[in-house]
Design brief:
alpha/beta, seven-stranded mixed beta sheet, 5 helices, 7 strands, 25% strand, binds inosinic acid
C-alpha cells in the first residue's frame, strides 16, 4: 500500500517511513512549494495545508504540523514553533527557562489525511516531557536536543529513530492513523 507524505523535512519523513513501514504502508515523500499559514491551532494549520496541497496532488496523502508547548511559558512557542526555532533556536528556549523550576513541556502533532473525493481526516498525537537544562545529542532535528520525553532520561536527539518513535507525538498520531487506515482498507 502506497501513501504520500507531503513534507520538506527529510527527518520527519524518515521517522514516518519507518513507523508506517511496520504497518505495511509504503511511504513516499513529496515536497511541494507551500506558504505555512498562521492559525491558532495545529489542526487549523494542518487543515489549511491539506486544502492547499489537495489542489496540487491527486492521490492519497498525509501532511502534518507539529509544535512544542512549554507549560511555564503559557504553552509558547506552540503554533509559532517553527518561527521561534528559526529566530532563537534551542538556546533561546533554554535561556527563557533559566531559573524556572517547571520545565515541563509537550509536543503535539496534528496529522491530516486526504484522499480524492472524501473529506479530510485528522489524527493527533501528544507526548509529555521536560526541557533539558542543556542541549544533548546529535540526531533528529529542531528541538530534539532539548526535549526529554517522560519515561526516558535521553533527549530525542540522543535516540535512534526507532527509539524516538516509541515516544514521539508524531509516532502517536501516525499509529492512530495507521490503525484507522488499515481497518478501513480491510472493510473495502
Ligand atoms: P513544523 O511541524 O515543521 O511546522 O514544526 C514546527 C517546529 O517544531 C519546527 O521548528 C520543527 O523543527 C519543530 N519540530 C517539529 N517536530 C519536531 C520533533 O519531532 N522534534 C523536534 N522539533 C520538532
Amino acid at each position: 500500500m502506497k501513501l504520500i507524505f507531503i513534507t520538506g523535512n527529510l527527518e520527519k519523513f524518515l521517522e514516518a517511513k519507518k513507523l508506517l513501514g511496520e504497518f505495511g504502508i509504503r511511504l513516499e515523500q513529496a515536497d511541494i512549494e507551500m506558504t505555512e499559514p498562521q492559525s491558532d491551532t495545529l489542526e487549523e494549520v494542518a487543515e489549511k495545508c491539506a486544502e492547499e496541497a489537495l489542489k496540487k496532488v491527486g492521490e492519497c496523502f498525509i501532511i502534518e504540523d507539529s509544535g512544542l508547548f512549554v507549560n511555564s511559558l503559557n504553552c509558547f512557542p506552540g503554533v509559532y514553533s517553527s518561527y521561534v526555532y528559526r529566530k532563537i533556536g534551542c538556546e533561546g528556549i533554554l535561556r527563557l527557562l533559566t531559573g524556572s523550576a517547571d520545565r515541563s513541556a509537550y509536543f503535539m502533532t496534528a496529522l491530516a489525511y486526504s484522499e480524492p473525493g472524501n473529506r479530510i481526516r485528522f489524527f493527533t498525537g501528544r507526548v509529555e516531557g521536560n526541557i533539558a537544562t542543556e542541549q544533548r545529542g546529535k540526531s533528529g532535528f529542531g528541538y530534539d536536543p532539548i526535549y526529554i520525553p517522560l519515561g526516558s532520561n535521553l533527549t530525542f536527539a540522543e535516540m535512534s529513530t526507532e527509539e524516538k518513535n516509541k515516544f514521539s507525538h508524531r509516532s502517536r498520531a501516525l499509529r492512530t492513523f495507521a490503525s484507522w487506515f488499515l481497518s478501513r482498507h480491510e472493510e473495502k
